[in-house]
């Protein structure tokens, strides 16, 4: 086992996971065929183009932005001399992640994509999507703030708090 770790650089389960992932990828490509990933009539509607754009947008644009934001969040709490036994970082990360994921899920409704089809199918407009997403985001941050406040109020303050 130690020889395998030294040669490969990680646990055998890591290699097994990679092989399984590539096998699944190969199965998906073989099942849907590469031709299904490309639309020759309108190239920008191809799955391959959207997948490549998502990789580029995430890895080259979004990841550096939220990595810097996370680094700032981590250094801001410790940089001002305020030492808290309840770190704030996850109370910001969790609602931010929830907000980003719900934004991605409801993006077509928020930007009113397919409005005529949506109206024909439901009889409703898409005007409420943005407001509801904003309310949901505000609620996630509010719940997180309440949980953080409760944790701050109930945390053991240390030896001086026990003596008082």
Question: Which term fits the overall shape?
Answer: flat
Low-confidence stretches: none
**Elements, N to C (H/E):** HHHHHHH
Number of strand segments = 0
Strand content: under 5%
Secondary-structure content class? mainly alpha
What is the number of independent domains? Answer: 2
Q: Which range best describes the helical content: under 10%, 10-25%, 25-40%, 40-55%, 55-70% or over 70%? A: over 70%
Report the end-to-end length measured between terminal Cα atoms. 55 Å
- What's the story with the biggest beta sheet? none
- Please, what is the average pLDDT? 87
Count of DSSP H/I helices: 7
Taking Cα atoms only, what radius of gyration do you get, to the nearest Å? 24 Å
Transmembrane segments: 12-37, 43-69, 90-111, 131-153
Keywords: Membrane, Transmembrane, Transmembrane helix
Keywords:
single chain; 164 residues; mainly alpha; 2 domains; 7 helices; 75% helix; flat
């Amino acid at each position: 086992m130690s020889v395998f770790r030294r040669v490969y650089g990680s646990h055998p389960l890591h290699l097994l996971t990679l092989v399984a992932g590539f096998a699944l990828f190969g199965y998906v490509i073989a099942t849907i065929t590469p031709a299904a990933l490309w639309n020759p009539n309108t190239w920008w509607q191809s799955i391959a183009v959207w997948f490549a754009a998502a990789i580029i947008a995430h890895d080259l644009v979004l990841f550096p932005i939220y990595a810097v934001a996370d680094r700032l969040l981590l250094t801001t709490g410790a940089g001002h001399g305020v030492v808290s036994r309840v770190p704030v970082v996850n109370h910001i990360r969790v609602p931010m992640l929830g907000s980003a994921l719900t934004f991605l899920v409801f993006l077509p409704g928020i930007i009113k994509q397919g409005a005529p089809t949506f109206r024909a199918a439901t009889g409703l407009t898409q005007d409420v999507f943005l407001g509801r997403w904003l309310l949901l985001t505000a609620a996630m941050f509010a719940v997180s703030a309440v949980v953080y406040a409760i944790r701050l109020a109930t945390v053991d303050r240390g030896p001086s708090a026990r003596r008082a």
